[in-house]
């Protein structure tokens, strides 16, 4: 893969890897590389070469050449990965990885509904997290895990409550 990551236009480079619509993760990753750039500038070091940035099984994966454990760069990347693990890819809302059909993704309940509805046009039987073990944070209407509108909701996620699913 040619090195297309451009430190003069970090955001555009990140968007190319993660997709323009995934604003939540684009922001997290862009901030991470801006910090790395600043760190290198201050020390007059070369920027690390980015091999790959992608979403896999609902988590953010960032591969750079020659990453060494215990360095600022390595720990800053770890921080971004952790933050992405708790954030919707699309909007950055609090979120945990979900399975829509067989597709692993990290989306808040609103974006999971949107994605599931789209996917059901092609695969009418896909649901959210159909194989999940009993989970106290699972919506009883749609199967989303991680966001429950406590109160008069009947144990459903905020998106189901709002849509009356
Ligand atoms: Zn979202
Ligand atoms: Zn729901």
Describe this structure in words.
The structure is a single chain. Helices cover 39% and strands 14% of the residues. With 165 residues, it is α+β, with helices and mostly antiparallel strands. It has two domains: 10-85; 96-163, no CATH class. Strand 3 and strand 4 form a beta hairpin. Helix 1 (10-18) crosses helix 2 and helix 2 runs antiparallel to helix 3 (72-85). The longest helix has 21 residues, at 23-43. The protein starts with 9 loop residues before the first helix and ends with a helix. The relative contact order is 0.11. The model has no long low-confidence stretch (mean pLDDT 90). Bound molecules: zinc ion (2 copies). One zinc ion (ZN) is lined by residues 109, 139, 141-142, 144, 156-157, 159-160.
Order of helices and strands: HHEEHEEHH
Distance between the termini: 45 Å
Per the principal axes of the C-alpha atoms, what is the gross shape?
A: elongated
Rg of Cα set: 18 Å
Strand order of the largest sheet: 1-2
Number of E-state strands: 4
Give the count of structural domains. Answer: 2
Strand content: 5-15%
**Structural class by SSE content:** alpha+beta
Helix content: 25-40%
Largest sheet: 2 strands, antiparallel
Distinct bound molecules: zinc ion
Q: Low-confidence spans: pLDDT under 50, at least 5 residues?
A: none
Supply database-style keywords.
165 residues; alpha+beta; two-stranded antiparallel sheet; 4 strands; binds zinc ion
Give the gist of this structure.
This protein folds into two domains: 10-85; 96-163, no CATH class. It contains five helices and four strands, in the order H-H-E-E-H-E-E-H-H. It has helices spanning 10-18, 23-43, 72-85, 109-122, 158-163; strands at residues 50-56, 59-64, 96-100, 103-107.
